[in-house]
Amino acid sequence: MKRIIIFSISIFTFYFINAQTIEELAAVRKGNTVYQQAEKVRAEAMQLVEKGGEVNTRVANEKFKEAAKLYQDAEILYRKGMATTKNFGKANYNLANSLYRQEKYEDAGNSYKSVAEQKENDKTTRAKAFHNYGNALMKQEKYKESIDAYKNALKLNPTDKDTKYNLEYARQKLVQQQQQQQQQQQDKKEDKKEQDKQDQQQQKNQDKKEEEKQQQQQQQQQKQQQQQDKRQLDALQQNERQTQKKVAEEEMKKGGKGKQEKDW
């Protein structure tokens, strides 16, 4: 699907005072003004990006920074709008919008969810909150949870085409994610199998080296023993020769002292 996920922006304004204080309502109204200014600057930046070119890109980046600062200012004002009246639905919804634009998707999702689950809010508000809660979950690649959010939005507003589209898109992304996870698991199994094979081969090589080392040590020991045996044998032979020499010398001495007969 080439279409982008549709983000439903709805800024709530107020024409009466309920349980909220004057200061809270004033902060929310001011936050709406700042937020709308941020949206305008952001739209200008997007147009420059589409035009392309080095100058347009540079100016667009400056406008994106300006818009980011405005979204932060709007966030602060919306939080002031809930200073004493916690979970002020309309302020909380608009706060979620400013958080979403700052790519604080988890915080934005929590605010949308809070608004969506407050049954005292009207169905239209809750449906939009569930829709955008699904979008925030999509940005976090929590596709299964986003499907549930879109379904809840459709229960409140069954004719919302944008939510129907996002629901189908989320289903496709979930299938892709599951396929990727299965492939990753398969790859891990293959990697582990290959690693085990390498480990076994490495162990075999190590065992072979150890065996060769032991054989070399045995051969060296045998060689040393043979050399030692040879030295001992040589020593015995040398002793024997010396003994025989002494015996011969003694016999010669004895023979020299006896009477010699003349051979006539």
Structure description:
The protein is mainly alpha-helical. The protein has a domain at 22-176: Tetratricopeptide repeat domain (Serine Threonine Protein Phosphatase 5, Tetratricopeptide repeat, Alpha Horseshoe), CATH 1.25.40. The chain is 80% helix and 0% strand. It is built from seven helices and no strands. The chain has helices spanning 22-51, 54-80, 89-101, 105-116, 123-139, 143-156, 161-257. Helix 3 runs antiparallel to helix 4, helix 4 packs antiparallel against helix 5 (123-139) and helix 5 packs antiparallel against helix 6. The relative contact order is 0.07. The model has no long low-confidence stretch (mean pLDDT 87).
Summarize the amount of helix as a percent range.
over 70%
In angstroms, what is the radius of gyration? 47 Å
Distance between the termini: 139 Å
| Oligomer status | single chain
Q: How are helices and strands ordered from N to C?
A: HHHHHHH
Shape: rod-shaped
CATH superfamily of the domain at 22-176: Tetratricopeptide repeat domain
What is the CATH class of the domain at 22-176? Answer: Mainly Alpha
Mean residue pLDDT: 87
Looking at the structure, the CATH topology of the domain at 22-176 is Serine Threonine Protein Phosphatase 5, Tetratricopeptide repeat
Parts with pLDDT < 50 across at least 5 consecutive residues: none
Topology, number of strands: 0
Q: What is the CATH architecture assignment of the domain at 22-176?
A: Alpha Horseshoe
What count of helical segments does DSSP give? Answer: 7
> Biggest sheet: strands, sense, closure?
none
- Structural class determined from secondary elements: mainly alpha
